[in-house]
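User: Here's a protein and a ligand (magnesium ion). What would the complex look like?
Assistant: Let me lay out the input and then the predicted complex.
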Amino acid sequence: MNFDNPAIEIENLTKEFGKHTVLNNLSFSIPRNKITTILGFSGAGKSTLLKHILGLHQPTSGTVSVLGNNLKDLDPMKLREFRQNFGMLFQYAALFDSMTAVENVAFPMREFTTFSNEEIIKKAEDLLLSVGIKEVSFARLPSELSGGMRKRVGLARGLALNPHIMLYDEPTTGLDPITTQMVNDLIVDTAAKNSDRGMTSIIISHDVKATLRISDFVAFLDRGNIVEYLPVEEFKKSSNPLVQEFINL
Ligand SMILES: Nc1ncnc2c1ncn2[C@@H]1O[C@H](COP(=O)(O)OP(=O)(O)O)[C@@H](O)[C@H]1O
Ligand SMILES: [Mg+2]
C-alpha cells in the first residue's frame, strides 16, 4: 500500500535474537491520522515490532522511519527526545502508585516542559476531564480508582505532551467486557479529538472483534511478517486462510 507522508515507514526490517529470526524482512508503512491495528497470534513479533518503532530495539538489518526521521540517524540523546512524539498506553496502565491522578498526568509535563506549575495542573485537569475523569477523582491515588478509571488516567498521561503518535499495546487484555468496550470507545474518541492535529493511533491487539469495529486499517503479523494489510472493510473479506482462521476463532 502507498500512503502520502506516512507516520511510520518500515523497510526490510529483520530482527534476530541469536539464531531466532523474530522479524523477517518486514516492510510496511502506517498512515497518519488513522487508527491502524496490528493483529497477530501471541509470539508473532508484535511487541518486538513496536519496540523498533520506539527505537528501543536496533534492527539487525533494514530501516525504521518515524515522522520522516530514520531512527538510525538519531543518537541516544536525540532518540530519547524524539520519543516525546509518542504517547503510550500499555496493558497495565503503569501509573505511579504514590501519585494522585492529576500528578500522574502532570508528570511528563514536569519532566519535559518548562510550563509553570499552574499551567501544568490546568492542562492535566483538562486532560482528565477529556477522558471522562471527573473533578472528585483528580486527587485520588491509583489504588482508589477502578481499573477502567486507571486506564483513563493512563491515557490522559499518554496525551500530556500532545503526541503525534499514540501507541496502544494490548490495551484491553485482562479487562472485563464492559471496561474493554469503554477503553475501545475511548481510543476512537481520542483519535477523533486529536484528528485536527493529525494524531496517528497504532494498536497492537489480538482482540479481533474490537479491531474490526474501531480500526481504519488492519495489518496481520505472522511469524515476523505482515501477511495481510488492508482497510478494515477489505480486511474482513481477506481470503488469506490465516486471517480467516484468526477472525473466526
Ligand atoms: N529480547 C528478546 N530476546 C530474545 N527473544 C525475544 C526477545 N523479545 C522477544 N523475543 C522472542 O520473539 C518472539 C516474538 O515476541 P513478541 O514480539 O513479544 O511477540 P508478540 O508481542 O506478538 O506476542 C517470541 O518468540 C519471543 O520469545
Ligand atoms: Mg506482545
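Summary: The CA atoms of residues 5 and 31 lie 7 Å apart.
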